[in-house]
Amino acid sequence: MRVLLLVIGIYQAANGVVMLAVPEIWYSAVPGVSETGPANIHFIRDIGLAFLAAGVALLMASRRPGDGRLITVATIFLGGHAVYHLVEMAHGTTLTAAARDIMLIVAPGLLPLAALLPGSEKGRT
């Protein structure tokens, strides 16, 4: 469980750092983002802070996987973001876009919840 939290924490925090540091590059590099409308640098950086905060919470949880509060806090944003994308998929999207969103958004947003499931305490300290 620690490794899962560590890897997803790095992924989310790195995404947030890129959004903060080079929002224009992030906007043009992430598949599907430019299809949502013109780049709003302020908004990209605001969301980058949310990804950074969630990623740091998961990194902290990787050191203390028994503390579900950190995972819960991270999942408020990441899980909500994942569910929002699932709702959009339910209203119609291409198979390619759905597969991309499941791999890049939904799975990394919801997998940390596995640390809260019964039986996951084997990896807890």
3D structure, described in words:
The chain crosses the membrane at residues 40-61, 68-87, 102-119. This protein has one domain (2-123). Helices cover 71% and strands 0% of the residues. It has helices spanning 2-21, 23-29, 41-63, 68-90, 95-110. Helix 1 packs across helix 2 (23-29), helix 1 packs antiparallel against helix 3 and helix 4 (68-90) packs antiparallel against helix 5. The longest helix has 23 residues, at 41-63.
Give the key terms:
globular, mainly alpha, single chain, 125 residues
Topology:
Blueprint: H1 2-21, H2 23-29, H3 41-63, H4 68-90, H5 95-110
Sequence of secondary-structure elements: HHHHH
Distance between the termini: 11 Å
**How many runs of DSSP E, i.e. beta strands?**
0
Radius of gyration, taken over Cα atoms and rounded to an integer in Å: 15 Å
Main beta sheet:
none
The proportion of residues forming helix, as a percent range, comes to over 70%
Give me the number of helical elements. 5
* Unreliable spans: none
- Mean pLDDT across all amino acids: 91
Shape: globular
Structural class: mainly alpha
- Strand fraction: under 5%
Question: What is the count of structural domains?
Answer: 1
Write a brief structural summary.
The protein has 125 residues and is mostly helical. It has helices at residues 2-21, 23-29, 41-63, 68-90, 95-110. 71% of the residues lie in helices and 0% in strands.
